Amino acid sequence: MFRDLLIRGAVVDGQPAALRITRGVIAEIAPDLASRGREGVIDLEGLALLPGLINAHDHLNLDLLPPLGTPPYPSAYAWHDDLERNYPEVAIPHRAVAEADRVRWGAYRNLFSGVTTVAHHGPVPWRFWAEGTLPTRVRLPMAWAESLRVGPDVAARARHARGRMPFAIHLAEGVDGGAAAEIDRLDAAGALHEGTMVVHGVGLDADGRRLLAERRASLVWCPRSNHFLLGRTAAVETLPPEVAVALGTDSTMTGSVTLFDEVRFAAGLGKVRPERLLAMVTSEAARVLMRPDLGKIAVGTPADLIALPDAGGAAPTLLAARPGALALVMVGGRVRLAAPRFGWAGDLEAATLDGARIRVQRGLGALIDRLRDLLTVEFPSPALTLLSWAGNHRSPGV
Fold first, then answer.
1. The domain spanning residue 37 has which CATH number?
2. Full-prediction pTM beyond 0.90?
3. At the N or C end, where does the chain have fewer CB atoms within 10 A?
4. CA–CA separation, 289 and 140 (whole Å)
């Protein structure tokens, strides 16, 4: 059930704002609004309100893992081959975790950095389609292919998706000659078109970048993952201006622990301005995912919202953000994470995130207990350390 809410005392783009939320949708925006009596009132007391963030590339089922491999590699294919031959012993306990619980954890991992919509590269267990119980929205339906090497039905998947949903594929994820040639192969297969999400694109040369623009395809940029595996990232600063770009974390096997970290890493490269980075996780990312109703605060759109301490504008606020500073994360009008003072606004339970006490969508504690049955506290998951999980839930052996 939806609960109608009134958010007051917010700062949106530097201006005072109040939002009335009815049945999960933003119904009214004004500098201030009076309560109608039947609404729950959340007073943000000067916190910045941003659109919920969009993570355009993740593998939710792999987000328990630590960084793996011995980089640098000439391509992601070489990395995959290395892991096939030399799978790290430290990661073996992860295999005992049920796929559904891996996906659940990946969704919570995204929630902890204000992500309200994530593009998962892989199958989503059918139960989550039916239940809608994940704490973040997964972009569904969505077509995907692992790569040109893995996935002989690339053309069929792209054809099925065209005009209906995004089609994502790992492409040009390398610094060797083969990576540069992949975009021509994708085009020859009829799989490069509007709605195609080229994930990584590190090896794209000038001709490849022009072709991306001509076919009205988009790029998903994962700079931390690229630098970890390959020692460099895509030349996003040289893309034609009509190419939409979205930011993605990739999984924790190669990428950032949170989308906040990814934004800061990207900012440190100096390739794009902070305002463009904000767009790459909000409005521009929404275009890439073919969900123009997301990534913005506007009347008639889903109430996907996050609240953070104001740092003097939306972009500076995003660059300063930490998981423990989140005061509110709302997905489609439902509060999924909140500071304790707003804990009444959703079906939430207590947790400690990044050293701060929070309330989070119910089910996290039970999930952590199941993980504790299979993984030791010493399991080297950088994402799990956000929760101080050794201290939040039952002790080992209990």
1. 2.30.40.10
2. yes
3. N
4. 10
